[in-house]
Design a protein that fits this description.
This protein is of the alpha/beta class and 270 residues long. The protein has 2 domains: 173 residues, NAD(P)-binding Rossmann-like Domain (Rossmann fold, 3-Layer(aba) Sandwich); 85 residues, UDP-galactose 4-epimerase, domain 1. Helices cover 37% and strands 20% of the residues. The strands form 4 sheets. Strands 3-2-1-4-5-6-11 form a 7-stranded parallel beta sheet, with helices on both faces. Strands 12-9-14 form a 3-stranded mixed beta sheet. A two-stranded parallel sheet has the order 7-10. α4 links the parallel β5 and β6. The structure holds NADP nicotinamide-adenine-dinucleotide phosphate. NADP nicotinamide-adenine-dinucleotide phosphate (NAP) binds next to α1 and β5.
Amino acid sequence: MPRLLLFGASGAVGKALVRLLEAENAYTVHGTCRSNRPPLPAERCHRLDLEDFRKLELLWERIRPDAVVLALRGDYEKQLRFHRAVAELAKGSSCDVWFCSTSAVFDGSAKKPHTEEEAPAPESEYGRFKAACEEMMASVLGSRLRILRFPAVFGRDVPRVTQLMERLKRGEIVEYHDNFFANRHTDEMLARQIAFLLRHRPEGIFHLGSVDIMSQAEFYRELVFRLGYPKERVKAISHPADRILAVLSKRDWPEELRITHDDILDHFRS
Ligand SMILES: NC(=O)c1ccc[n+]([C@@H]2O[C@H](COP(=O)([O-])OP(=O)(O)OC[C@H]3O[C@@H](n4cnc5c(N)ncnc54)[C@H](OP(=O)(O)O)[C@@H]3O)[C@@H](O)[C@H]2O)c1
């Protein structure tokens, strides 16, 4: 069976992908984590810090992955060095590398949605770091690097949702922008899309996320309602200017891998 090494297997994205790939049983999945345990058997869980290059090399030698998914967070400088080290190891092998990037690589040009052929235009520190990481890894790996750009991810155990539920339980009013428009994703559909890509191995950049956009305040009003609270618990506020941050795809995705905001919200129907 082909071997897949997932960096960041204990994170929100990593866990959803592990659950799906373990159920599909098409790969022997190995996953790294720092302090949380991924949903993998102990012998395939590997504690690995971003600074532990010796351990990275040993792990690589031991697993010799056929595919790598990078779904990490952490200090940006350390991540850049770590991602370079992974790219250099992958360069000397035949393995495919899938890098989790973000819609934030376009946050310096937030006037319209962006498709795959557009060049990044980052403004925030996060967006600039992710764009730099994409560029650095592409310079080492060329077309062997696949870039996955997606917007905010939602799911029952995703921290932005569990933290929201904590605030609602405490009786707080939560504030969201009525003139910030975005697309969004679920952890489960993102995992299904990544699993599809791993199977078919197309090259290039992939924009993953809902095919429609919605304002932040409207989305959270609906979400809060699905979570069992009145919509009035969301207070709408405004940015000085309208903002749109969305990554839309020009690719021909199978119908069952398309997702809308209605589907995302249905995910939370109680
Ligand atoms: N979630 C989103 O909405 C979203 C949207 C767009 C793009 N992305 C991208 O998708 C990727 C995954 O995001 P996520 O939300 O799943 O992140 P996450 O839940 O914070 O998980 C991050 C993963 O990185 C590991 N990690 C963190 N610091 C580390 C360190 N110093 N050394 C080694 N490992 C470390 C964590 O291990 P422990 O759990 O053991 O600490 C965890 O496995 C990221 O690259 C992110 O930029 C996410």
